[in-house]
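Our working data are protein records whose layout never changes between entries. Instead of coordinates, the fold is spelled out as a row of discrete tokens. Here is such a record, shown just as it appears in the course material:
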Amino acid sequence: MISLQDIKKSFYTFRNGIIADTLRKAGMPYKVIFGLQIPQIAAIAREQQPSMELADALWEDKEVRESRILATYLYPREEVTEKKALELLSAVITPEESDMLAFRLLKHLPFAAELADKIESDPQIPAYAAASLKRHLS
């Protein structure tokens, strides 16, 4: 399995200071922003095999924007339980993360519609995360 350090080297290769500065000025809460665009993150994801272990490690890297987004590509859909989906939803930091999580992972789960209904009134789930999932299911 590829290491987080190797993935961060890939992030560094694609870094874009102008985008990173713009995101920082817009209030993104991350300590590190490489400024990668979604197609670049998708290209890095295509080089990896889906892996719960790698995706979890990236998701737990809350200080790096690109780690969190890449994780949404790498969760193996067939291994994500409702409990895991709820954990991910309750941990989203930004609307961008919730959109990527809903679009890349959650909408593909067999229980996505039930999940969307369940989280609508869950105080542990940010409202924007529930709205993202509903929007991507439509």
Observations:
- The mean pLDDT is 95.
